[in-house]
Amino acid sequence: MMMNRRAFSTALVAGAAATLLSSRGMAATSAPVKARNVVLAHGLFADGSCWTEVIARLQATGLNATAVQNPLTTLPEAVAAVTRVLDRQDGPTVLVGHSFSGMLVTEAGVHPNVSALVYVAARAPDAGEDYTALAKTFPTPPASAGIVFDGDEGRLSEAAFLSDFAGDLPEAKAKVLYAVQQPFQKALLTGKTTQAAWRSKPSWYAVSTEDRTINPDLERFMAKRMGAKTIEVKASHLSLISHPDEITRLILEAAGQNME
Predict the structure, then answer these.
(1) What is the structure's pLDDT at 6?
(2) Which of 20, 131, 228, 251 has its CA 20 to 30 A from that of 3?
(3) What sign does the dihedral 90-79-226-18 (CA atoms) show?
């Protein structure tokens, strides 16, 4: 059967729109699945205790929250640590990642227990993407110059930690966080994700507008690319500590929970 010009044009536009939608992530537009579990992963220069402020607020709402202790050794080992925690959850779970652990959310987020993804000033690569190369297309953030290595073990200098990582925290509190900083292995930075959970799971993203560890415009680019529901927080890289209420509200939204 012949297709007239108008019908052909309509089909062409519809096909182009479908291609555009399939090339981006799943926007958090429909009502999220109600979840009672939240798994939180930390990034470089930190440990699981960085989620303490958020965990206390989540627990106050009746949610079950678990912080993963990221080994910061290799990407597969870090993903395995997240997967083991996800395996223990008893139903729909929101997977949350800060900073480097956005890599873990992107990879481990395909787990069947994961109902939604939340990125907090976090990396959000596509499958097989070279994140380092992507980051280089934006101005280098100041914290990068503060990374020091002892052989294959890396950490952030105290000066960089205080000014570029935790810049909006009281100095005394930032120094405590610096004291518990967990070093990472160089091998961790060479890993690439093999899949992108944000292409099939609804996603949320919190951009830190004053971030000096990941370029805020890079955060905006990744959030837009994945079609995430996005908020902007006037915060340093550690918005989860300096602005726990805003981050908690975003997680609650992803969990389909009523917010006061």
Answers:
(1) 41
(2) 20
(3) negative
